[in-house]
Amino acid sequence: MQQNHPRVRIINEQLLSDNWYTLKKYTFSLLRRDGRWQEQSREAYDRGNGAVILLYNRGKRTVVLTRQFRFPIFLNGHDGFLIEAAAGLLDNASPEARIVAEAEEETGFRVSHVQKVFEAFMSPGSVTEKLYFFIAEYGDQQRSGEGGGIAEEGEDIEVVEIGFDQALQAIDQ
Q1: Is the pLDDT of residue 170 over 80?
Q2: Of all helices (H) and strands (E), which one includes residue 165?
């Protein structure tokens, strides 16, 4: 955590939860643009940084995605099953090394060359996580297994291969 910034002074840090990840409440002072210090309080959820990869096959004009149950969106009125790109937390590995392993665990494809596209904070108002976005080309000869994730970690992932056109239509919806 960055604590040395000329416009931010952390006054207090309180641990609220340390169950799955950590949730902390911070009280801090922020130097406003008008020169006044303003005290604020915010909660921040720290789940570590992650990486995500879009696998594509130029010749077949397909992408490989995953479908899995996401409990938080179930709580928000969705059926809970999302189609998404393979992703995972870094767990102290480099983004490149972790996403190669994650792609194989979740999709069953062993990719050797990944290209970083960008980095982004997905929910910066409340979550500390930075995501590293990658792409990689895959071929049928790179299939090393069925994918599906790690059952012991609660993963039950369906591998979904769809055409470029269908993927683009899904984005539009």
Answers
A1: yes
A2: helix 164-172
